[in-house]
Write a structure and sequence with these properties.
With 206 residues, the chain is mostly helical. It is built from eight helices and two strands; from the N terminus they run αββααααααα. The two termini are 21 Å apart. Bound molecules: glutathione.
Length: 206
């Protein structure tokens, strides 16, 4: 979304599987995303957004200035510390079902070291979903006043939270946002952007 926002449409994507991370070995770490731009590379979503903003200052801004960047850092921390763990707690079992069968044994062993038995994540999803939705209330209040976290147009802050919801949309078996929720409407607007770019991401049901 950040690349599209910047109008940097001429990019390719390299699939990386859980078991074989050799395509990103050059980055000396094992997580995606990694952005390669000519002879420069950057890993970590936040660092990538900052790189794009600084390397392409004449393109549409992701932060709207240094104060916007500073505030987006808070949204990044809120999403990573609160939203992502809350959602993982709900969709870990679904995510397991979505893993490539060839990666499944590796995935189970690795995730169970972090999260305990995957089977327990089949239970209590409805209750956990209610409390996760409640934790998004500050965003709901904000979107009651404006179209996007960026104001009248989307900014990187929007794409941060959107990434979490898109993850659930792609690997989950059900909608994490209720019809009528302003956050769901906001999500639909982002899915429509860039000619429906994010809508084209594969999901477990497609
Ligand atoms: N804070 C990092 C998180 C990187 C991260 O954990 N990426 C996940 C995918 S979104 C990953 O590579 N997971 C591989 C694994 O957990 O084994 C970012 O925002 O880029």
């Amino acid at each position: 979304m950040a690349l599209k926002h910047k109008g940097l449409d001429d990019f390719g994507r390299v699939p990386v599987s859980f078991r074989d991370r050799s395509p990103i070995a050059f980055s000396n770490q094992d997580r995606i995303p990694v952005l390669v731009d000519g002879d420069h590379w950057v890993n970590d979503s936040w660092e990538i957004a900052c790189y794009l903003e600084d390397a392409y200052p004449d393109r549409p801004t992701l932060f709207g200035g240094e104060m916007g960047r500073a505030e987006a850092l808070f949204i990044n921390a809120w999403t990573q510390q609160i939203q992502n763990p809350g959602l993982i707690n709900i969709i870990l079992w679904d995510a397991f079902q979505a893993v490539d069968p060839a990666d499944r044994d590796w995935w189970r062993e690795d995730r169970e070291k972090r999260y305990g038995s995957l089977e327990i994540y089949q239970n209590g999803k409805d209750e956990k979903l209610v409390s996760w939705r409640q934790s998004l209330e500050p965003m709901r209040v904000t979107l009651g006043e404006q179209q996007y976290l960026g104001g009248e147009t989307p900014a990187y802050a929007d794409y941060i939270v959107f990434g979490t919801i898109q993850f659930a949309r792609c690997v989950g078996q059900y909608d994490v946002l209720e019809p009528g929720d302003p956050i769901r409407d906001w999500c639909e607007r982002l899915l429509d952007m860039f000619d429906g770019f994010a809508r084209q991401a594969p999901t477990v049901t497609t």
